[in-house]
């Protein structure tokens, strides 16, 4: 996507418009981004603890995603060295909660259990 003269915003993958929803979906669709936000939802974590919580994501990818999330205003580096959600980041995670509740109901449905049983054969 070509930048317009005087524009300081990043290009958004899959969108020529760069609308806010497209920019947000682009950011959230990057590998490990949602997992990092999810792991930070309850309390700040150090980089090492966050890496462990994220199934040993590579340090390079973790740092890149943390940089993206800090730039977007969702995550901040605390005085104690841990990463935590900003008020905006907490707001974003709250929007996930209805989806989380739905996923838990979906997981408990017989339809999904049947799929898991087929995969284990």
TrEMBL record:
<feature type="domain" description="HTH hxlR-type">
    <location>
        <begin position="19"/>
        <end position="111"/>
    </location>
</feature>
<keyword id="KW-0238">DNA-binding</keyword>
<keyword id="KW-0805">Transcription regulation</keyword>
<dbReference type="InterPro" id="IPR036388">
    <property type="entry name" value="WH-like_DNA-bd_sf"/>
</dbReference>
<dbReference type="InterPro" id="IPR002577">
    <property type="entry name" value="HTH_HxlR"/>
</dbReference>
<protein>
    <submittedName>
        <fullName>Transcriptional regulator</fullName>
    </submittedName>
</protein>
<keyword id="KW-0804">Transcription</keyword>
<dbReference type="GO" id="GO:0003677">
    <property type="term" value="F:DNA binding"/>
</dbReference>
<dbReference type="InterPro" id="IPR036390">
    <property type="entry name" value="WH_DNA-bd_sf"/>
</dbReference>
<dbReference type="Pfam" id="PF01638">
    <property type="entry name" value="HxlR"/>
</dbReference>
């Amino acid at each position: 996507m070509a930048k317009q003269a005087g524009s300081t915003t990043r290009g958004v993958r899959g969108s020529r418009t760069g609308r806010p929803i497209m920019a947000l979906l682009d950011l959230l669709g990057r590998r490990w981004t949602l997992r990092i936000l999810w792991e930070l939802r309850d309390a700040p974590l150090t980089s090492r603890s966050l890496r462990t919580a994220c199934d040993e994501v590579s340090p390079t990818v973790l740092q890149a995603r943390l940089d993206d999330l800090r730039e977007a205003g969702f995550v901040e580096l605390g005085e104690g060295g841990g990463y935590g959600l900003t008020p905006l980041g907490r707001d974003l995670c709250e929007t996930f909660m209805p989806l989380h509740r739905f996923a838990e109901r979906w997981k408990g449905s017989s339809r999904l259990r049947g799929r898991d049983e087929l995969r284990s054969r």
